[in-house]
């Protein structure tokens, strides 16, 4: 490369920045050339060019008819490591985090917005407690308390023999068995802390561009920032995704990580100290006093955890570089110290202490279920109040998408907890005879496992209705297909049926709110039925349904067994899939698709959720667009497909106005309105997308009727600007065999938009609408730009 880039000639340099979608893509496939070179970035995410285009800025005359293509590959942010397959187990945390971003838009109601965020964070906290409590149930209650006290169980599983109460070993004392078993949930909480801390250092540490010319202020109703003071002087109103601190949640994630880690440790400590104080209650002495002191310490730290979670939300108004290191360090450390003291206290010798029955877990799981239900109902009330002033008819579930998804997160947590506990109990209880003492989890978990088949059965009804509707729609669309291709004179029934079926299947995406609403409502009702059933039954291990009517008890027992096996099969499937992902790149990409959609948003509610890749990708794109336009003065079109269009829009929102005026946005197969606009109306609703169009020089959107993901963005023409949506693209491009297409053209649906001739025409039209090049401020090579981007980012 030459040491300097000359000033652009007439028309100036033009760059097309390509951003791929879900599932990932290679730079070779994006640039249609096997010889690609990394311009800037690293192995995780980078910009690539063809080898022949490295000196494009030095020879703009070569690119008078086309822009210079440059590909941004970000797939390794979500699917580059096989270990990420195990993130499937964190699915409830991810779903709870999504609920935070699904609130309705609000203006002038900051109190309700803040209350909405607090409620979601409390729901997320209950999920951490629930997961830890389930681990305590398996390790402490089922294994160390019940199985170790049953001769048949310890004889069947020799690896538990050293815990057997009949052998009289050092570990046979109930308190010591519990203290040893507490290592399992403690290690689980420690693992979650480690994963969160490692990803926090890699993802949340990516700083977005700084140096805005004017102070920034946003409507107070759309932020939870504590620093809500009005700035003095001229201000620039920016949408939510354009705020300087939106993609930098380092402080909040560190704060929540400390609180959730402490909550996990305190849950284990509470399980230990509750068991010991229950035994010590009848014999006052030093151990009893110490036990109540430890319970008080657990209660005080629990109040501190609640205060930390509720006290502060996201700070988006400015780039908050602070990290409360004292809080982040001492709160988990203090909780771990209390846990260590409870373990020592539990292991103290207590003559005559024997384990019988179950540990007091029913009250804990019942309280968690009630608290989660109350929080979700409260979240629904707040959501209804937020969207009362004006309601967009296309918003999913009439603004109740957030509460519905929060209910699904709780359901996933409850199903996983109940199913795993019941499966382990069935496994440990397999060796017991009919007259032996049965090993079983708390009654509520057995009832929760029993509702799994019922819930799956309920899902068959809407699934069957949607399948029937799809068949009818395919028949109805046959006439429209023939009209679109002018094939009424020579119709091909097979070809028409294929295209019509493709369009009908693509429309199923718009029915997702109905399915989510049905599942969420059924989950709420079945959860209430589980609590009622547990209260009506006695806490007898292995006989959870004895208190119910004989017919109901028989049916519940069958469904509980089915649910237990389904959960066991599901976890086996997760492990198998994760094992395959270590060896198979295609499996990693498949799993990555799940996280491409689910982890776009920052971790605002749950710090143990999979990390937000957009906190790396959006600053990458923003830095690149800013540095390239500043150094060359050229025109730039950012071209995003599928999820890449969402990243592209988010990056354009972050640009300074002067830079944004030199950038065109081309989206295709885009879920901006169809998915994000409906489910996240406060951030991608109609007003937000119209505002984005007003602040840009030009924007065009391409979509197909056969695309199940992409669709129109529904931004109309206004103020002399044309409508963003282009005419719907025909898919396939030809109905039958023609001279231009001698072989049958495939139905592309969501893929290969660039193969359509309309793509090149739309891109050229956008470049022609951009203003001519400006003199650049200084000369630098592409390699210099890459080094500058790496040092700044």
What does this 3D model show about the protein?
With 793 residues, this protein is mainly α. Helices cover 55% and strands 6% of the residues. Helix 12 (401-428) crosses helix 13. The radius of gyration is 29 Å and the shape is globular. It starts with 13 loop residues before the first strand and ends with a helix. Mean pLDDT is 83; it is low at 1-10, 212-223, 225-236 and 776-793. Keywords: Membrane, Transmembrane, Transmembrane helix. Residues 773-793 are annotated as: Disordered. This is Integral membrane protein. InterPro entries: AB_hydrolase_fold (IPR029058).
Give a quick precis of the structure.
The protein is mainly alpha-helical and about 800 residues long. Helix content is about 55%, strand content about 5%.
Shape designation: globular
Helix content: 40-55%
Instruction: Please state how the strands of the largest beta sheet are arranged side by side.
Output: 2-3-4-1-7-8-9
User: Mean pLDDT across all residues, rounded?
Assistant: 83
- How much of the sequence lies in strands comes to 5-15%
For the CA atoms, what is the radius of gyration? 29 Å
* First and last CA, distance: 24 Å
The computed structural class is: mainly alpha
Number of domains: 3
Biggest sheet record: 7 strands, mixed
Stretches where pLDDT falls below 50 for ≥5 residues?
A: 1-10, 212-223, 225-236, 776-793
Total count of helical runs of at least 4 residues: 26
* Number of strand segments: 9
